[in-house]
Amino acid sequence: MNDRLPPWRAPLDRGRAAFNRGEFFAAHEHWEEAWHQLEGTERMLLQGLIQIAAGLHHLQEGRPQPASSLLAKGLRKLPGAVPAALADLPIDALAGDVARLLVRLKAPAAGMPDPRIVRL
User: Which of 32, 56, 62, 109 has the largest count of CB atoms under 10 Å?
Assistant: First the structure.
């Protein structure tokens, strides 16, 4: 039995840690490193995470329009069934957080939401 992790796992985990600290640009960079090593459904899911991280970075920088666009694109790339290799990621919870954030972004009276409410 091979207990070694695949080479894309370390940048994926570094990206997740950065994401949960609210360091969305760094998360995007780590996940791009992993994205280059993946194929199929895993690659598509990671592309969604990259777009969500980029959208949250735009939101942090006070740019709600590009944030909304990237968050919506990323959300559409999250699969209904998470591939086994990425089963430890709470994708359903993330999708719910992003969907709620998008609703808040469309309600300008609510003010700019804090992007750190989204966790992975």
Answer: 56
